[in-house]
Amino acid sequence: MTSGTQRPRLLVGGIVAVLALAALAGVFAWRQYDDGKRHALNELDARVVLAATVFDTYFSGELSQLRSIAETAAVRAGNAPAMTAYFRRVQPKKGSAFSGGLGWIDRDGRVRASSAPTPAGPALNVADRGYFRTVLASDKPFISGGLISRHGRRRLIVMAVPTHDSSGRLNGVLAGALRLQQAAPSKQSVALGFQGVVVIDRDGQELTEASFARPANTALLRRMRKHQTEVLSDTHGLTGSGGRVVAYATTPLAGWITAIDRSPSSVFASARRVLALQLASIVAAALLIFFLLIWIYRRANRNAVAVRRRNEIVAELTRSLADAYTPNDVAAALATALSKSFPGSAAVVGLAEGGRSELTLAAVEGQRPSTIAAGDPVLLGPAAEAYERGAKQTASGQAAVARAFPELQRAAARGIAAVYATPILGRRGGKLGAVALLLADPVSFAAANDAIVDAHLEQAIQALGRTLRQEHEHEVAVELQRSLLPAELPEQDDVSFAARYHAGGTGVEVGGDWYDAVRRPDGLLHVSVGDVAGRGIAAATLMAQLRNAFRAYAFDCTSPAEITRRLQRHIPSGGMVTTVCLTFDPYTRRFGYSLAGHPPVLILDGATATVTTHSAAGSPPLGFAGAEAIVEEWLTLPEPATVVAYTDGLVERRGVNIDTGIERIVSVLARTSGGSAEETAEALLTGALAKDPVDDDAALVVMRAAAVPARFDVEIPADALAMSALRRRLDTWLSLRGIDEAERIDAVLVVHEACINSIEHGYQLNGGTIRLHVEHDGDTLGISVEDTGTWRPPTPDPSRGRGTQIMETTMLATDIAHGADGTRVVLRQRLGSNAGVAPTV
Amino acid sequence: MRDEPVFAAETSEPEAGIDLVVFTGDLDFASGEQASAALAALSGEARRVVVDLSGVGFVDSSGVKMLVAAARAVEGEGGTFAVCAASAPVRRVIDILHLDQVVRLVETRAEAIAAVRVS
């Protein structure tokens, strides 16, 4: 294919060549025309000469006949009656020789004998006639000009010869008259080319005119007299009008000029006809070639434009594919390019990802048939068919389409009149997916279409392979990331957790975001959310380390600030980590937090659907914070409450203030009032990602603390020093459960006494674990204190008896069971009966 | 998590011959020894001892045992012993164990001082 700039040049060259050829042919035609004109003039000349010669021959014949008559005895003798008889014999009536009659004129001009009946009266005198006088004077034959006869007023020409008597003396003139008859130009004369012939006699009269008129153009007449014979093209004619062709020849005997005066158009008609025919042929041929050239050019141009457009589409596809991160990106780019390459089509791309045999719809672009809804599975039908068969499937015409693709028999798909579907085969022949072109108008797919589709597929397959590998690697990375995060979070005491980890971007780098939650045996919950700056193995390793450290410190510490302070010990120099630690006691609803360079904690008051943000207890990020800067704040959670902690990936966007992102999730959170932790987490993640994709990782933990649990369930160390805190927590819990003060005093007291028994006698002050369960069930409180110590019966000691005495006095039931693996004290307190002694203060 | 109430015992002599011991914090198994040591430090015969429990929010059986032992020791030496300003939980334990018969229990510190002074 020629390049775009050469093509117009070729066209112009072709047109110039055609014009040159046409011009050459035109020149030849013109020369031929000239020849034709010359030929026509020659012909004209020949005609007038021929006519003159014919006249001359005729006249000489007539004159010799007259001469032989003049030699007869009757004429010589001047015997009139003899002559008349003779003349009548020679020239019968209507005879051909002398149609005007034959007569002898004596020297005086009197007509003495005539073939015509002799009129009565004196003899006709023609002494004044020119011919008579000329013959008498010259003694030579003479032919007159046109005359009007004195009898009968006929138009005549008179041929006259002198007569001599036997002694040779001139005795008269013998005259033969020729009648001129005005004849319409016969077909024959026209065919012979004598159209427009004019005969002029020696007197300048036009014999061919009834009136013997004289030509108006006397100059021409003079010229004719002078030149005798000539052909004049483009001259003034006999009437004086210009632009005429005149040919003439002079008859020597009669002095007649035979002339043909015609318009050039009639003279050159034949040449012009030939010229016109030739020029028409040339123009027709040139036009034909010209249009042929144009047609070839436009066709080539159209093809070139189509090829250029296709190249552009493929180039665009290449660019899109370079930007594609996921197989779905590739599918979208492929569908877009195909729909452009096949205007009016809907391009459907299905992918079989992850080695699944099932084809899933990955992209639809172009003009989707209006009969089919966007999500209609029928769209995938043809692609699935090609995928199943592993071979190209095409059909044109609705009937053929329905035959080839049974899925398209559905009413919804009847608008499809042509389908081209082919599988996408990987480099190693594996089926990666399939594409289908759906068209509303029937189109027969030529082999050229295969090449176009293949050009698209070849590029897409490469990108598909790359993105599939990338996606796999990304999945591995995300999987690795997930493996570093807790599989499940605690679910107890009417507190539930939900967490989300969103792997931002599509790279293979592992992010450094984490979350975790720990329920301590004493029922205290610690939640940690953090973000190690950077990505990759180093970030992931530090993240894993910090998470493990958090779990360890969570069991050691009850203070969120202390845990945060200890985490800072693990930050390598130059490292930066933002984190938040939350601590929650479900029994007292005390909630503490400590932030280090981290976005605020959100708390939703479920009763009022209001969200508060908390960031007062904040310090710089770990790695930059002094130990004393890390602080905590304590508050009491409303009932029910939802607490949200997250990394900045959830709220931070390039070019957008982080507060905007926080406001967005605050408003989402406010609307989730009453939802479970899972629902809330989902809503937050969706809400945060709704507007624009997140390129950073994002971790999110939602803690929903619905109500104060009915069961107080803790494990505490068998340590007398821990009892004070336990008593306070228990008292607060009982209070939150609505139990009045007197009953609380008894409950706390008996629990304490039972625990002290365990510490003192169960574990012999050597430490251990005490499991305490207190269950509030309507009007009773069930208390259970268990240890795994080896009970040593108390030595008789009145004071020890007091502990038991307290239990028995205050409780409805007391059961102390000592077993091989420990002691279990089960108590039962009746509530609401005011059985106990009313407090005095 | 929150500031743990630390047990403390403060001894003073509001007037000549009368020892005032003010306990703050929980008087229990853990703090019993510390409390007992503070009372044991009050040596001498016929002591007049007032124990102010207004700062004590909780007393357990061992705390009570310590108070009873101290009262007996003081009274056994011819002295007088009174406890004042017991909070509800403290009162409750004393009531349960009927120790109001063993230990003199009054409402206010002034009453207690008066009580030990008179006898």
Structure description:
The complex is a heterodimer of chains A (841) and B (119). By secondary structure, chain A is α+β, with helices and mostly antiparallel strands. Chain A has four domains: 74-179, PAS domain (Beta-Lactamase, 2-Layer Sandwich), CATH 3.30.450.20; 325-478, Beta-Lactamase; 484-705, PPM-type phosphatase domain (Phosphatase 2c, domain 1, 4-Layer Sandwich); 711-830, Histidine kinase-like ATPase, C-terminal domain (Heat Shock Protein 90). Chain A contains 19 helices and 30 strands. In chain A, helix 8 packs antiparallel against helix 9 (327-341) and helix 15 packs antiparallel against helix 16. Chain A starts with 5 loop residues before the first helix and ends in an 11-residue tail after the last strand. Chain B has 119 residues and is of the alpha/beta class. Chain B has a single domain (26-118), classed as STAS domain (Transcription Regulator spoIIAA). Chain B has helices at residues 32-40, 61-76, 88-96, 109-118; strands spanning 8-15, 18-24, 48-55, 80-84, 104-106. In chain B, strands 1-2-3-4-5 form a five-stranded mixed sheet, with helices on both faces. The longest helix of chain B is centred in the middle third of the chain and has 16 residues, at 61-76. In chain B, 48% of the residues are buried. The model of chain B has no long low-confidence stretch (mean pLDDT 87). Chain A binds chain B through residues 524, 558-559, 583, 585, 590, 592, 634, 720-721, 723-725, 727-728, 741-742, 745-746, 748-749, 752-753, 756, 759-760, 799-800, 802-803, 805-806, 809-810, 836-837, 839-841, and chain B through 1-2, 4-5, 26, 28-30, 58, 60-62, 64-65, 86-89, 91-93, 95-97.
